[in-house]
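Reading a protein record of the kind used here takes little practice once its layout is understood. An example of such a record is reproduced below.
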Amino acid sequence: MPKTQYSELLSGGEARHGGSGGERRAGSPNGPPSPRLAPGGFYALVVVVAALPLVAAEPGWTQWRGPGRDGFVAAADWPDGLSSERLERRWRIELGPSYSGPVLAGLGNGRTAVIVTETRDKKTEHVRAIDAATGAELWQAEWEGAMSVPFFAASNGSWIRATPCVDEGRVFVAGMRDVLVCLDAATGRENWRVDFMDAFESPLPSFGFVSSPLVIGEHVYVQAGGGFVKLDKASGEIVWRVLDDGGGMSGSAFSSPTLTMIGGLPQVLVQTRNDLAAVDPEQGTVLWKTPIKAFRGMNIVTPTVHNGKVFTTSYGGGSFLYAVDPASDEKPVEQLWRNKVQGYMSSPIVIGNHAYVHLRNQRFACLDLTSGEEAWITKPFGKYWSLVANGEMILALDETGELRLIRATPASFELVGEAKVAEDESWAHLAVEGRDIYVRDLEGLTAYRWQ
């Protein structure tokens, strides 16, 4: 949901759960210290190419999975078909590799920047602002921050992973080495930086800082520092940390948090490596928690809420629907069903009473959320899809560079059209703003206009 809706959730007047909240760091009588900056060897360089006015109004695609972090866009109806002839390639820039999806930042006077990240020479991480109209670079920031990831993850490369978040003239970027950097969206100037390993004396996350930042009101939330952390978005001051998982190899989240309302209570859904939990965004109280089975803790997708129930899916565990009653001390969360089909890296789309899920076995499935039964499952496609929905239509970007338009119906898999939009692998999440489509492949960023 958009930021305005986040604010409405928090001011909804419902009684909140009390409790002492999370771990607090002494620095003020009841709160945390100012975060310590990274060591001297960790530097930032900002190249300002154009002086731009302050933000006026943000576009819709400012964060992970779009305005509501659920893959949906609120726009006029999309075109009724998709083919190479219906996509106008507006511009392309070459970039170093990244898994981060592009996001948009309003710059005032009708101007918009596309914010992208990259890793260069296995040494430094870069953030670049690109004029959405022309493809020209507006500014660039960089810092030392590379690392090597282990095991199976290394086959896809060791580069920056999390998608940034834009809010009120700020860009929040998660660096691989467990740092959160806040940049000015108009100039790229660094506002503040938090090194979570330094702040919490936590180990380096073995797979890097993967979770994408979430902004609610005056705070930014991240799964970092071996837990779930709330910070003041203006200063970077740490407010609390909960759900400590030890970080390192077995901890450190792969998923990204999202805000929802269940049982009249605003709560942030947080999927750790082993558990699905809900946290009060004000106090940090853990409202409920349940284990989610997954091979080597590969709980990767962002959970989805439908009719007050929570759907998630995991590698090695299956697909699950949970009923939640935060007011119940006896049984606040209950599993309603489990289906053996396993999602992996692709966060699902829920339309009507069905979840549309790209599976570990590379097939695409439609699951009935009432019964948990499969409506249909397709043949195999690529290893990863990023999904964006508008009404009953879904755009699916395959990691092979194929973009597909699918009509969401439980009757059958209905492919409406497709087009090749990238020659290199596309592991970053698709971004859609109106009829503008931004595709980040491993070698660059391409802007299309859908006709």
About this structure: Confidence is low (pLDDT under 50) at residues 1-5, 10-56.
